[in-house]
Design a protein that fits this description.
The structure is a single chain. The protein has a single domain, classed as Alpha/Beta hydrolase fold, catalytic domain (Rossmann fold, 3-Layer(aba) Sandwich), CATH 3.40.50.1820. Helix content is 38%, strand content 18%. The protein has nine helices and eight strands. Strands 1-2-4-3-5-6-7-8 form an eight-stranded mixed beta sheet, with helices on both faces. α4 crosses α5. The chain starts with 13 loop residues before the first helix and ends in a 6-residue tail after the last helix.
């Protein structure tokens, strides 16, 4: 169980509170995501005019197209001089936004700090390609990696992970690999503020209009673009309802000011009741996507994630 004091407002560092206030002020000056069209948001991200600013690219990154049963699939690959394992990364963005090249600097850091060959999946996005296109692409990438990791990167130590919708897709990919391919060989899962119940957990439904990256209307906008309402409790759509037997050890990371807080707390509890080892890192006052920002708290979270991935490559066992 998490320490109750983590959720006390007095536990929020003044620097974190100040950062959140500025973030909320800047958010109030921009039109809410749920009032815009996806292509408008995507174009602003690509040309650097959006709130995230210009995209920073890594010279280490290599664009590849891997051949899968569903056709050619684009991935972004980072290979350091020494490889101890492979990190299969699935980006966030609510299944509607985001691309593999949007996190180059962080993925380069993981590659170098963890001696990881990083493979980031550029899966198809809704609403042009609604469910199950994104999960199908992630599953296909996992199948390819399991079959080719040893020959491509010299190791079959594979950790899977991602942020937000990427956390969701990571879990759904592990479940599909277990159920459809009889594979439970992932050594670990790095799950950052994932969304695991698209019918909305209490923290999602009760959050309201306050926008700290996410809000209840923004989450509903993502879900409406991605999947019909009548199947949102299907375990392939909302993995909180799935049988979690055979999942690997996991690190769950979330902030106390994230509308997806319950998703992480509930899923971590389900991991535990399935008898699986896990770690929970809860950061007081941290908002959604907090580890992407230039703060001390983000550095702490990313350092812990790096240690988890490295320790897993170095022999953390899969229970």
């Amino acid at each position: 169980m998490p320490d109750p004091t983590l959720f006390d407002a007095n536990s929020i560092h003044p620097d974190v509170a100040a950062f959140n206030a500025e973030l909320e002020r800047l958010g109030a000056e921009a039109p809410p995501i749920h009032t815009l069209e996806p292509e408008t948001i995507r174009a602003a991200r690509e040309d650097g005019s959006g709130p995230a600013g210009p995209i920073i690219y890594s010279d280490m990154a290599e664009e590849r197209v891997i051949e899968t049963d569903i056709g050619g699939l684009p991935v972004r690959v980072f290979v350091p001089d020494t490889v101890k394992g492979v990190y299969l990364h699935i980006h966030g963005g609510g299944w509607v936004l985001g691309r593999a090249h949007h996190q180059d600097i962080r993925l380069e850091e993981i590659a170098k700090e963890c001696s990881a060959a990083v493979v980031s999946v550029d899966y198809r996005l809704a609403p042009e390609h609604p469910y199950p296109a994104g999960p199908d692409d992630c599953e296909a990438a996992a199948v390819w990696l399991v079959e080719n990791a040893k020959s491509e990167f010299g190791t079959d130590n594979i950790v899977i992970g991602g942020e937000s919708a990427g956390g969701h897709l990571s879990v759904s990919t592990m479940l599909r690999m277990r159920d459809k391919h009889d594979y439970t060989g992932f050594k670990g899962a790095n799950l950052l503020y994932g969304v695991y119940d698209l019918s909305m957990t209490p923290s999602q439904a009760n959050w309201g209009d306050r926008t700290l990256i996410l809000s209840t209307p923004i989450m509903a906008w993502f879900y409406d673009h991605y999947v019909p309402e009548d199947i949102r409790r299907d375990p392939d759509v909302s993995p909180i309802y799935a049988d979690l037997t055979g999942m690997p050890p996991a690190l769950f990371t979330v902030g106390t000011l994230d509308p997806l807080l319950d998703d992480t707390l509930f899923m971590r509890a389900r991991w535990a009741t399935a008898g699986i080892e896990s770690e929970l890192a809860v950061y007081p006052g941290a908002v959604h996507s907090f580890n992407d920002f230039p703060t001390d708290q983000a550095e702490q979270a990313n350092s812990r994630i790096n240690r988890f991935i490295t320790d897993t490559f170095n022999g953390r066992s899969n229970k």
